[in-house]
Amino acid sequence: MADAGAADLGTSAAADGALFRKLVAEGYDQCAEAYLRQHSQQASDDDLRQEPFRELMAELPAGAHVLDAGCGAGVPIAKAIVDDARQMRVTGVDISPRQIELAKQLVPSDRATFLCSDMASLVCEPESFDAICAFFSVFHLPRRDHAAFFARAASWLRPGGRFVFNLAAGEDGDGECDLSTDFLGATMVWSSYPRDHTVKLLGAAGLSVVKEELKMVTTGDEVDRSGLRFRFFHCRKE
C-alpha cells in the first residue's frame, strides 16, 4: 500500500497528464533491464498475463495482426505472437525509448514492428487489428484518459476483434487508485477507476466484456508486491 506522500504525488501527476507520462517514460527507461531480468526469471505460471493471453491467442485466426500496447521489451507477449506457427504479425508500442530498443533486439522479426509512442496518442488505421492486448499498461494512463483510449482502441479493431487488458484494483478489488510507488527502484504512477465505471466506459466505446477476472499476486514476483490485485478484462468489439 502506498504511503500518503506517494498517493499525493500520484494524484498530482494524474491531474497533470504531461507529468504523469514523463514519470512513466522515465521510470521504465530507468528500470528496463531490471524489469526484463525479473520477467526472464519468472515462471510462466506466476505471470498473471499468461492465462488471458493464451485465451486470446486461441481465438485468433492465422495471419492475425495484434497490437501490443505497452509492449515493454517485447517479451513474453510480442515474441510469443511472432513465434506462433500461424504467422501472426505484431505491432508493439511503448512510451519508453529504452524498452523499445530492447524489444527490437529481442524480437528481431520481419513480422514485428516496434514504435516509441504514448499509446494514448498513437495513430492507427481504422479496423487494422484483429486484437489488442494491453497488459499492465492502461493503468499507466491517467484515468481521465481511459475513455478516449478505449474509443480509439475500438476504432482500430476489426468487427469482432478482441481487446484484452488489465487495471490495478484497490485493496477491496474494486477501488480507485492514483498511486506513485517505488517500482524496481524507479518512481512509477498508476491510475484506475472502479470496476463498474470501467465497464461503462468500455460499453460506451462499443466494447462488450465477455470475461473478467480478479487476480492477485501471490508469489512476490510482480515487483515484489505480493497481495496486489489486478482486474483483467476480455472484450469484444460489437
TrEMBL record:
Name the record gives this protein: Methyltransferase domain-containing protein
Residues annotated as domain Methyltransferase: 66-161
MF terms in GO: methyltransferase activity
Alphabetized UniProt keyword annotations: Methyltransferase, S-adenosyl-L-methionine, Transferase
A Pfam family matched in the record: Methyltransf_25
Species the sequence originates in: Symbiodinium natans
UniProt keyword Isomerase, yes or no: no
Any one Gene Ontology BP term: methylation
Lineage of the species this protein comes from: Eukaryota, Sar, Alveolata, Dinophyceae, Suessiales
